[in-house]
Amino acid sequence: KLFFTDYGNAAKVERCDMDGMNRTWIVDSKIEQPTALALDLINKYVYWLDIYLESVEVADYQGRRRQTITKGRQIRHLCGLAVFENYLYTINSDNLSVLRINRYNGTDVQALARLDNAREIRVYQKRTQAAVRSHACEVDPYGMPGGCSHVCLLSSSYKARTCRCRTGFILGSDGRSCK
User: Which range is the signal sequence, renumbered to this chain (predicted)?
Assistant: First the structure.
């Protein structure tokens, strides 16, 4: 799945399959300018910053169990968001410091370090990395991912795929080759 925010005509947090299909709104009310997302892949929660409402919030992947983690003027200066164990990590764009916030109650906010020009943060954790298994976009004997001549995107499951073409090409009638 791909998770993303939109704050055009109607602000929302959404998800879809990697090929763009099955687009689903997770949160579409009481939200104004969501600017950063972080996923708890193990417990299936999505966290986001709303810089207009000055809040950090969380909901499960279906938009249920929504809670506000913290609110306040300091939120408008935050950018980037990551989750690791009991904490959220973010960048304060005002002073370029890395902040750690307790993700259960919004307390225990600590500045951990200062980084020049930081605007994004990521945490990589071994247990959240998916085990590699056979999937529909594996390279075929001719070196083509999923049998696609340009781009292979996983669809609704690891067994399904959609072929796409680079800019300037169109997908052939076979659904695999680009012309």
Answer: none
